[in-house]
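agent> Task received from the user: take the single chain below, predict its 3D structure, and emit structure tokens. No templates, no multimer pairing.
agent> Plan: (1) validate residues, (2) run structure prediction, (3) serialize to tokens, (4) report one or two observations.
agent> Step 1 OK, no nonstandard residues flagged.
tool_call: predict_structure(input=
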Amino acid sequence: MKIIIAPYAGACSGVKKALRVTETALIQCRDNIYCLHDIVHNKQVMEKLYRMGLQKVESLEKLIAGDNLIINTHGTGPFTYQNAFSRGVNIIDTTCSNVRHVQKLAGDLANDNHQLIITGEKNHPEVKGILEWCHGYPIVTKDINDMLSLNIKADSKIALISQTTFSLSRFSEIAQHLKKYCPALKIYQTICRSTELRQKGILEIAGKVDTLWVIGSAHSANTTALLGIAQNYHPDSRLIEDADEINIDFLYGINTLGITAGASTPDWVINTVLKRISGLSKNYVGYTESLGKHSSF
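)
tool_result: status=success, residues=297
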């Protein structure tokens, strides 16, 4: 069995930076490093950080002056910063630069009296943070069906932005649908380059493989978006969260396996999956990947 790894599979530069910052802080000051949410949406990564000393709290009320709070890659709203500063809590900010851009854009559009529509998952930490930066009034939608019940005036000032890890194809569908009813709609495609490259990477290998596996966590938005794309081409595509869940039956009938991984999945997690496959498959012949197309984004 041969494996083809999709271009750009795995952790993006923003995630790598966030993990470097977090791990450095834990090494330097192990006892009082806290987070309110997962630093990245990856179970194995978070388990590693907890072993290193990271502690998760439900609210800032649990922290005291001198404690350190890590803001995760998905960002947060202004209230968290204000509350932390007022309590004397130090901020270690790992917010992705792309998320910062969307937060500022959303705030600017809201201040300019635009009706803002955000494509994304309304309960995702990134979207919740964006809502705070623009005073909580935007509409959040994840597909065209959501839009059918909305009463949007065609002559209003309307702008469309996106969660940075949303599906490119779904964003395009929603934008095209809105444009029919709102000719003056301002469209800001704010899906990050890392997400875009990983989604396009699947398309490059989909026709060369028998099926696709997506390595990452089920609660990672960019990972589940990748799985949705993979299943459009190979309905039997799998989400692999942990190498230990793979058994010999998973490999039955596969001659060429395609693998990609979410932007919050580091190389060491991918390598545990490859090692597991090599231990199970009697005819494993190794893997290939597109040279020069690694996760520098």
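agent> Step 4: summary for the user.
The chain has three domains: 2-11+193-289, 13-96, 98-187.
agent> Done.
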